[in-house]
Amino acid sequence: MRLESLTPRYVEAQHGTYLRRLEEAVKDPDNRNVAVTGRYGAGKSSVLDEFARKRGKKVLRLAISTLAPGEEGESTTNRIQKEIVKQLLYGASSKVGRNSRFNKIAVLSWRQAWLQSALVVVPLGVLAYLFGVLPHMKWPGSDAAVFWRVLVWLGATVLVTGLGSVVRMLTYDRFSVSDVSAGGAALTLTAAPKTFFDKYIDEIVHYFDHEAKDFVVFEDLDRFEDPYIFEALRELNVLLNNTPKRRRDPGATGSPQSEPLRFIYAVRDSVFSKIDASPANKGRETENSDPNGKAQDPDSTAKSEPHSTPGGARVSELDEAAAETQRANRTKFFDVVIPLVPFISHRNARDLLAGLLEERGVAGIERRLVNTVARHCTDMRLMRNMCNEYLIFSERLLQPVEPTKTAPDLDATHLFALVVYKNFHLEDFENITRRDSDLDRLYDLAQRLVRENIAGLHRRKRDLESEEQRVRTRDRDAERMGELLSDYAALLLKTNNPYGWTVLRFGVGSTFYSPKDLPTYEFWAAVAEARSFTIAVMNSETSNQHRNVATLDANWLTTFVPDALQAHRWTEFDEANAARPLADIEAEIDLLRRATFEDLVKASQFTLTPTDGEALRLLPRPKPEQPQTFAQLVAATLKSKLAAELVRRGYIDRNFSLYAAQFYGNFTGVDVANFMVQHVQPNVMSIDYDLSRHRVGDNEGAVANLLAEAQDAGEELLESVAAWNIDIVNHLLTTDRAAARVVAGQLIASWASEEPREFLSAYFTSERAEGEKLASLLAACRWRDVYTYLVSDDGVPTAARASLVNAAVGGFDTHATYELDDEVRAFFETHYRDMRWLCGEEPLGESDDVPGRTEGQSSERPLERIDTLLQRTKVLFAQLRPLRPDVRERAVAGDRYKLTAENLRTALGLSDDEGLPLEAVRGRRDVYKRCCQGLSSYLGAVKNDERTDYAVNTAETLVAVLEDLVADFEDGEVADPGSGEVAALLAHTAPTATLHQLQDAPDST
């Protein structure tokens, strides 16, 4: 399909009326200034083209497209006059221009130089012959033929003429006669001045006196918004029509009869809206002329302060009708005004644009897009140009020839939308290739909006899951807090019990609870509501009398058991109701990850609060720091309503950069292609970009295609922040551990910056992420802070901490140095039951199937690695029974457990019905030694154990224990047990173990 010319085209049906009116107007000799008015694209040039075609050389057309820079203070009117004079004089014929003081550049040919030289040489030779001053030639013989004499003189003449021609060519336009001195016969030649005379009326009169022009057509004068030029041209027309030659000599202009000179103007009516109606402005127009007649720019006076009329009224308060009447006086500039009725408007532009597309055989463009464009485009030439450009773009992008290929998911509708955007925003379209366009800025804002809203949703999710986790662990927490309170009450009973009663009760409000109720969440829920309770004693279980021993208020609770006051921890938990908001959050996250520009415009619940200077400048609002919806960001970023509407309706989407140039890559999906352009090439992180497309048949998934394309393009994707994407890391953790290790190394190396923290927080919170695999890999990569981060960072979901720390346990490297502080130890002691590497019924065995472990890692088996980790953290397990058998054995051997009756039975392999006297404990040396080193703890455990009557049952055991205590003290393994601990031991010794002879006791005691 051929491209349609954008030049004006005369159509009889549309322009015939105006042409006939114009021809009728110029027939009247009194109509010497005729205006053809109408908006841009109304058809003024089409009418004037046909008018000029019919009159041929009698029409002179002047179009002022630009103005040359003027002198300081020079008005726009004078600058326009300068351009008119230039076009007049430099368009004159050589006959007219010969007598002009404006010397045009002309090329002198050798033929002209020869003729000019001959015109000088030949007359001079003839004169010299007549006066007898020619040189006398001596001929070889007096009888030489006349023929040879004539031939020699002709040769001499030709030679002199040739030399004159050379001199003429060398000096042409190089010199001008500046000074002639007769007294000393001196002749001075100087360089001609290179000045440009802007305003010489005699030159203009000379031009029209000698050129056969009856009509002068002025175009494009209205683009400079200066109505005063028309007044100056009207005065010029009057002067030219009153020159003697045109007034007295009917044939001077070459016309068969006397014709006045007519000026015809193509102009917009709106240019005259600048004429001020105020009387004071008329005075200023007079004042704006300097003594040399140079008028100042009216625009400059318009910027001055408002003035008052003689009556005291301000100009801005003048009656608008009077102002409009003054503007209507534009008719004083013209003798006839021929208005052109607009044939295109926003109401019929749709049909015209659709017709242009249909004429060119363009199909596949949505009708709604045509309607959208037509509402903003009412210029026929622009419509034609858009259709022309679309034909070329579609030929190169929709039906390309190798090696170029069709851009992914590109169709006629999206391509036409981008062509429309190009025609309305030429410079911004060029900036797309440099990623510096408004659309690129909008893309960045969209990415920020998505990231910040997903981060906010992740925070909400972590809070909900944390709340859920707290409720789920309330029984365990109640048990732990009950033990603390029970120990405190027992101590209080020993030190502050004047009544001697031994039955404890805990009063919350009007209700009393027994010690058996302390490990229940019902008790702590009541405490949280009352915010205090009392400890009382009774003389028996059935007594109704009680005496208060102590009152524990909120300050005490906050200090010793702060979780007790968190009432929400103890409330009933409705799992169904808790699941609904989590499901809604996941749905919103999924929407944001896959959202197009159109989706974000519709999702007004998501906002972005700009903080950087560039974003703030984009938002011309009173308070741009307020949250902005994406629709508001679109309106603020894009420079036209059409561009904003194209985005809002989805015709320009986030893949716009793929459609702005030819596509050479392999088709790997629009998601991959756009990610390459927007993130891989500029090295920009996009955590949530959707690359979840899986493999279908022989077609690889999105991430596999991306990695292959990045490798072909020479992009170091794994070493860049662009790899910090949830789908990319998932793929690497599942399919390529070595590549995943590279990405993990980059995260660790860049930990000082904000981006790695942002990525890990989003990754560990995401439902679809392989969080445990990454946690294990980070530990295997010897990240020093992996455990402290997983345990304490707010970006890690509370509900997932235990599983993530468990995964990091599996990746522990004995040769690495990790930060293992008290917070990490406390977390292990509280959550070890949720770690599958530590707890379970089966032993770890010799398996080394650790996620993330690669060649070159520590060669120790999992049991050795875990034992080393537990040793470094100095964990004391509250219960040994949940541990795996081999882990439990290592914990017992390493004294990594609390001395409780349950743990002693577990360590000794005793049943729940068996007691824990030292006779049984001595059966295992490491457990016995642990009891000796923590004798007070052992005695406390035995005292509260219903199955154990005495710590020592025989005298032989008592003597052995005393000897071991003394030996351990002398070896420095234990501190001085002192008389208190020995006394406590003797107090828990059976009467049958009494030493009847003092010498039976060790000498050291």
Automatic annotation (TrEMBL):
Q: What spans are recorded as compositionally biased (Basic and acidic residues)?
A: 296-306
Sequence intervals crossing the membrane: 113-134, 146-167
Give the UniProt keywords, A-Z: Membrane, Transmembrane, Transmembrane helix
What positions does the domain YobI-like P-loop NTPase occupy? Answer: 18-439
**Which stretches of sequence are listed as region Disordered?**
276-322
Q: Which domain of life is it from?
A: Bacteria
Name of the molecule in the record: YobI-like P-loop NTPase domain-containing protein
